[in-house]
Amino acid sequence: MVTTEAAVRSVPAHLVEMARSYGASERQVLLGVALPAAAPMIMTGVRLGVGRAVTGMINGEMFIAVVGLGHLVTEAGGRFDSASVLAVLLVVVAVALGALALVQAVDRKITHWVPRTARSER
Asked: Rounded CA gap, 103 and 8, in Å?
């Protein structure tokens, strides 16, 4: 949310002024100027949020859940069952990589107009 707010606030004023001078409504300015201009920064916030969400999911499950991946890691760790801990951690890594791949695909779809030199090579 903070990144999205900062992204919308950082839209160049001359773009908004130009749209308004051509008679664009507030909705047209938002959908046609502000969101496209803020899209790269919004997607940056989403990518950061996905990493934190996976971490939070595991931490939450370890501390308060009775079932789930975090509980399995805690239980297997208590039994010193390193194979089970590693298996669960591999599942967590797969989930995190899948979520990141999904976000990157959406990012490429939304910000396809951004020049390749401005984006990191994926």
From this structure: 20
Read off the pTM. 0.72
Query: SS3 string of 11-22?
Result: CCHHHHHHHHHC
What percentage of the chain's residues is helix, strand, coil (to nearest 5)?
Answer: 80, 0, 20
Phi, psi of 115 (to 5 degrees): -60, 150
DSSP designation for 68: S
**Cα within 13 Å of Cα(32), Cβ side:** 14
Is the pLDDT reported for residue 118 higher than 70?
no
pLDDT tens track for 39-98: 999 999 999 999 899 888 878 877 876 778 878 888 898 999 999 999 988 998 898 899
Question: Ramachandran region of residue 80, left (φ > 0), alpha (ψ -120 to 50) or beta?
Answer: left
Phi, psi angle pair for 86, to nearest 5°: -65, -40
Q: How far apart are the C-alpha atoms of 18 and 62, rounded to whole Å?
A: 52
